[in-house]
């Protein structure tokens, strides 16, 4: 039986990409719970419960597939999220329609507060309530549990939340469902709990002015979007005429500025809608950086792409960071916002090289954040910093990947698997911070396989392999560079 003492040793040879999705996602949950000597597992009973359930499921799977853990498990019977729901014999076609009309009527009676940003606990409760009556996979349930636990550990959901009782109940229901279900489960929430969840879900509604400003920012830097700009212009105009947005609105002035910019773009001849930097910075402070992830750079249109002639391309100026010395010999002179993957066996020198590189970048090229998720704040990290003299004023160290990294020019994540990040997480963090360079550090097995997502190798600009104290690179800026560590 797997447990906290033997999990990483016994699971080391498993290729997670070849296991059922629910089991591979469970591994990420365990990696998060095991940080800082299993601190979250030992201090949170709900995390302990779901991790123990995962240990049991993985053990059962490996027992049934001792030599071929690549075979997908067959769907098990469908179970309900709450075992106390009515028996299957009770529902009938006739009475089932009446509650639907009643629910629709109740929805109109909800007292909603207009807010700039919907609270995290309300978002999770709404997400769970919408699952009612739908069939979900084991992996989907585990993903929601993982996201919820992460929000709690990061204190985005706090113990003093007004909905702490509902969050705990929802959490227990999800874990109970995961423990009992097969590959699929129909989520059934009893009527009393569902009513309460829906009341909370509808207690907050996003402000219309914020939604319109969000749509406005999404057009920034895009070419040939006059039709979209005109539709948004008319939406703002209609909202004002109908009294949905008044002068007393907190962001009436910002919306008025957006209205003027849209009108100038519609009436004029520019190919691209451009929001001036001062206005854009003001909106970023209001809306939050997460709303800017779809903002295009250099005129690139996320929907249709940017088409330029070969001559225009040659005339474009692409900024590099101006890298020099041994690291230029290794990877070349990369562009601003480059991405790199560094991989190798444990104890091969990856972290040492990356910490030295981080110190070099801090001394010559900008502000650097080194996320030492693998080692944390401990003796080995301190020893490396002292040995490498990596204590520049521009170099910052953390034991996790913080949500806000907008102040940094370079971010090192050591390691990706320990941080519990997948391809989607990596893609999102890059979109949120297009001018930040990321160096992702991976461990490999003795067979040379990544402990993580192999497909990520196709998404980065630079790949560096570290083996026995030597680093070699391939990539877009320099092919075949090498250096001794």
TrEMBL record:
Residues 97-107 have a biased composition (Basic and acidic residues). Residues 336-470 form the AAA+ ATPase domain. Residues 64-112 are annotated as: Disordered. This is AAA family ATPase. It comes from Flavobacterium myungsuense. The lineage of its organism: Bacteria, Pseudomonadati, Bacteroidota, Flavobacteriia, Flavobacteriales.
């Amino acid at each position: 039986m797997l447990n906290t003492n033997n999990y990483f040793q016994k699971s080391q040879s498993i290729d997670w990409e070849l296991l059922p999705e629910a089991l591979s996602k469970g591994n990420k949950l365990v990696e998060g719970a095991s940080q800082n000597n299993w601190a979250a597992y030992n201090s949170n009973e709900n995390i302990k419960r779901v991790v123990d359930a995962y240990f049991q499921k993985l053990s059962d799977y490996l027992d049934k597939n001792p030599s071929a853990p690549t075979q997908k498990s067959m769907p098990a019977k469908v179970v309900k999220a709450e075992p106390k729901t009515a028996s299957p014999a009770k529902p009938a076609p006739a009475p089932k329609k009446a509650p639907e009309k009643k629910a629709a009527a109740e929805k109109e009676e909800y007292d909603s507060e207009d807010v700039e940003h919907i609270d995290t606990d309300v978002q999770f409760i709404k997400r769970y309530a919408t699952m009612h009556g739908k069939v979900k996979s084991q992996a989907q349930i585990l993903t929601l549990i993982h996201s919820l636990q992460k929000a709690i550990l990061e204190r985005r959901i706090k113990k003093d939340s007004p909905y702490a009782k509902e969050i705990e109940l929802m959490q227990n229901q999800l874990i109970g469902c995961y423990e009992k279900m097969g590959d699929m489960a129909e989520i059934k929430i009893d009527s009393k709990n569902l009513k309460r969840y829906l009341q909370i879900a509808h207690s907050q509604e996003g402000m219309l002015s914020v939604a319109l400003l969000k749509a406005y920012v999404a057009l920034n830097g895009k070419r040939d979007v006059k039709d979209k700009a005109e539709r948004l212009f008319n939406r703002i105009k209609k909202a004002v005429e109908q009294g949905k947005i008044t002068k007393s609105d907190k962001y009436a002035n910002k919306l008025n500025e957006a209205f003027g910019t849209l009108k100038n773009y519609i009436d004029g001849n520019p190919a691209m809608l451009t929001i001036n930097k001062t206005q854009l910075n003001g909106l970023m402070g209001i809306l939050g950086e997460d709303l800017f992830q779809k903002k295009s750079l250099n005129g690139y249109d996320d929907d249709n792409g940017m088409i330029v002639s070969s001559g225009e391309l040659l005339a474009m100026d692409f900024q590099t960071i101006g890298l020099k010395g041994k690291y230029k010999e290794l990877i070349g002179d990369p562009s601003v916002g480059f991405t790199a993957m560094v991989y190798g066996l444990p104890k091969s020198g990856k972290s040492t090289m990356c910490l030295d590189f981080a110190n070099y970048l801090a001394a010559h090229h900008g502000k650097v954040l080194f996320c030492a998720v693998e080692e944390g704040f401990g003796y080995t990290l301190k020893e490396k910093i002292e040995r490498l003299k990596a204590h520049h004023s521009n170099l910052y160290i953390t034991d996790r990947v913080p949500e806000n990294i907008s102040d940094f020019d370079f971010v090192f994540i050591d390691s990706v698997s320990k941080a519990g990040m997948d391809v989607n997480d990596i893609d999102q963090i890059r979109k949120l911070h297009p001018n930040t360079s990321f160096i992702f550090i991976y461990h490999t097995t003795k067979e040379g396989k990544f402990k993580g997502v192999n497909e990520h190798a196709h998404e980065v600009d630079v790949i560096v392999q570290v083996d026995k104290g030597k680093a070699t690179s391939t990539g877009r800026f320099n092919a075949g560079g090498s250096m001794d560590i």
